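User: Homoserine O-acetyltransferase. Structure?
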Amino acid sequence: MPITIPKQLPARHILEQENIFLMDTDRATTQDIRPLNIVIVNLMPEKERTETQLLRLLGNSPLQVTATFLHTATHESKTVSQSHLHQFYQTFANIKHKRFDGMIITGAPVEMLSFEEVDYWEELATIMEWAKTNVTSVLHICWAAQAALYYHYGIGKFELPAKCTGVLTHTVANSTVELVRGFDEEFLAPHSRYTGTSGDTIRADDRLLLLSSTKDDDPFIILSRDEKHVMVTGHLEYDHSTLADEYHRDRNKGLDPSIPTNYFPNNDPKEKPLNRWRSHAHLLFSNWLNYYVYQETPYQWE
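Assistant: Predicted structure:
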């Protein structure tokens, strides 16, 4: 089944070229089917790029999905037009009376700040609290994963000696858990962050399951035992070129960024990187939608 998105959304053209099954709102209303309603809190600066990345993964599912995009009212985005936000986004005040089957909270380039220093932290905390009773399952990505660990479980983050950037190898701790069903015992995924969390601290918390880590025991996929929260510290949703764009952007700013680990062929930034994590990205999103959203959400919210 398709993902339902507005006809004018810029991501639509890209996804159609990739043969992602799409449907506009007018056609969706003619079908006698209950779609999954997913709200996406998009905190990334390049919102249009993130929209495409997430819709690509949500659209590769046998389930019909309707996506609602949310932006923060307490932070003014400087990298996306106000007309785009007005046309395709809502704020929490517009949707807080509704219930959603799933929620995705994206990463954000604010990890060097303490959580309370982020200008929209109070608003995000309100959304995370509201989601406890109004959302079946929440998927948190990168900084949002750290924010969820801090807000829900009191687990903090720490600054890394150097930026973690590159395509890292991960192992699966328990392949019987539905979220990682079908995963290889080792798989690749991109990371781009300056902070980390403690694997030992997560393992010591009986409310959490650490499902996947890097070979250096850096936590990657974390699941709450009540299955309400999925926390992914990296970026399986990234395109093949996202890390390259970040690297060249920083170089053009006059910075001296490290070359992303295990990413460019021959470790040469002039060569085109390959996407070697796509299948696991689709698998993670499909497993989340199926086992933690579709099979757990009521057909009709009371």
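Confidence is low (pLDDT under 50) at residues 28-32. The domain at 3-156+196-238+278-294 is CATH 3.40.50.880 (Rossmann fold).
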